[in-house]
Amino acid sequence: MRIPLLFLVALSMFSTRMTAQACIDSTLIDPFAFCPMIWDPVCGCNGVTYGNSCEAEVFGGVTSFVSGECAQSSGDCFDVGGLDFGDCEMVMGVAVVDGSCTGISGCGWVVDGVDYSVYSFENTGDCLAACGGGDCQDLAGVDFGVCTMAMGVALINGDCVGLSGCGWVVDGVDYSVYSFESLEACQTTCGSSCTDLAGIDFGFCDMVMGPAWVGGSCVELSGCGWVVDGVDYSVYSFASLEDCAASCGASCIDPSLADPLVDCNPFEPEPVCGCDSLSHLNPCTATYMDWVSSYNAGPCAGDCFDASRVVPGMQCPETDEPVCGCDGLTYANPCEAWYSGGLATWSAGPCDPIAVTEFADHAWKAVVADGQLQLVNWPVGATWRVFNSSGQLVATGTEDRPAIDVSSGWVIVVGPAGAQRVLVP
Questions:
Q1: Are the beta carbons of 271 and 295 closer than 8 angstroms?
Q2: 357-423 has which CATH code?
Q3: Mean pLDDT score, 40-65
Q4: Which of 54, 184, 208, 340 is the most exposed place for a label (fewest CB within 10 A)?
Q5: Please, are residues 90 and 108 in contact by the beta-carbon 8 Å criterion?
């Protein structure tokens, strides 16, 4: 059946009038109505400015409006929440949706005969500048898919989180306008602090992942990886425990860590470097006895000898586990190195033999007189080596008066049949 062209034109005109009625309702128009003579402008959904809401309704017949004059350009903060722009994925721009600046995708700005492009902005910055607010839209509950593509950082449940998923566009809304390039940028803008990762299961792998804020303290995390349930928690890792403590406001010495029920073994040195820049006997002692909130494995850099660690008469186990101390001496085990030698740095196994058989019967002694290192009864022709407090070799020679600056601190002199530590007053 052929439909007359005139009928199609009439149908088209009728359809246009019907769609336009979504914004303009002619039954509301009353040219004889009385409105107050006040200037309280509103912008109608048709893009026309009226003196007040009364005029908009009875003179214009508009069904919705916002306060303020129409700018007829991307500058009005009309909330387009609830409008259906279609299922297309065309990126249209930014507009206010449910009170927040949101990136919008759809089939176009014209809905029910009204062109809402006058309420759009080219970018989030322009929208925020005109309408206020910020980039800190909480995206909790938005399903970005099960893909593992790293998308960036955004605010989730009040915290800045690294997101993974299939993409930023969900149900026609482009949420990329709420993303950040880095955790720092997100925290600076949204005021988010360190996220406590306690309770998050990173798996049973032994891979060292890095320092993070866990249970109110900065600790070294191990596991299978940072991505758990689509969230990339690596944005909460730090380059060092010191950076973690500084960023998260952690106090290095936290008396609340004291626990009288914890019995740390004093005979098992496993030195760690605390955030207080001191070497501690082991992790248990550092946490529960010295109250250090964070630490790194191993002694602090440059820490060899400290007189405060020397405990004369300490009954260390008689285990045969020789270690070579940073002072060049061999100790029976780490416990002896810590309490007898006052050391924090050593290596497994005995030190290399340094005795020279032809000088074995000589008893030499290293002393300091008037700031000059002297080797009393030094065997003629014997070679000495001098190490600093960090265990670094600083000089070697054969003379009995080494030209070495010993104005402060202490040095270790290694010679025939052993080594001697010389403390400078």
A1: no
A2: 2.60.40
A3: 85
A4: 208
A5: yes
- CB neighbour list of residue 95: distance below 8 Å, 6 or more residues apart: 78, 80, 101, 102, 104, 116, 119, 120, 121, 127
In Å, how far are 43, 145, 209, 216, 409 from 231, measured between CA atoms?
43, 11, 15, 21, 51
- Of 223-227, 283-287, 297-301, 366-370, where does mean pLDDT reach its minimum? 366-370
In the chain, CATH 2.60.40 sits at: 357-423
Q: Is 328 helix (H, G, I), strand (E, B) or coil?
A: coil
pLDDT in tens, 359-376: 344 468 888 777 778 888
Instruction: Burial-class residue 246 by CB neighbours within 10 Å (0-12, 13-18, 19+).
Output: middle
Amino acid in the structure at residue 155: L
Residue with tokens 């928690």: 233
Contact assessment for residue 164 and residue 231, using Cβ atoms and an 8 Å cutoff: yes
Q: Is the pLDDT of residue 276 over 50?
A: yes
User: Strand pairing partners for 152?
Assistant: 163
In the chain, helix, strand, coil percent, each to 5?
20, 30, 50
Tokens 């998923």 map to which residue?
A: 165
φ/ψ of 197, rounded to 5, equals -90, 15
pLDDT at 231: 75
How many angstroms separate the CA atoms of 175 and 166, rounded?
A: 12
pLDDT digit string (tens) for 92-112? Answer: 878 887 777 777 778 888 887
> Does the pLDDT at position 4 exceed 80?
no
Q: What is the number of other CB atoms lying within 10 angstroms of the CB of residue 117?
A: 15
Nearest of 395, 365, 393, 367 to residue 379 by alpha carbon? 365
> In whole numbers, what is the pLDDT of the chain averaged over residues?
77
Separation CA 193–CA 160 (nearest Å): 8
Beta pairing, strands 231-232 & 227-228:
antiparallel
Query: At residue 362, what is the residue type?
Result: H
pTM for this structure? 0.35
SS3 category, 26: helix
Token readout for 249 is 């406001």
Backbone angles phi, psi at 12, to 5 degrees: -65, -45
Torsion sign (Cα): 231, 232, 235, 241: positive
For residue 404, give every residue at least 6 positions away whose Cβ sits within 8 Å of its Cβ, in sequence order, or none.
373, 386, 394, 395, 411
The sheet carrying 169-170 orders its strands as 90-97, 100-106, 173-174, 169-170
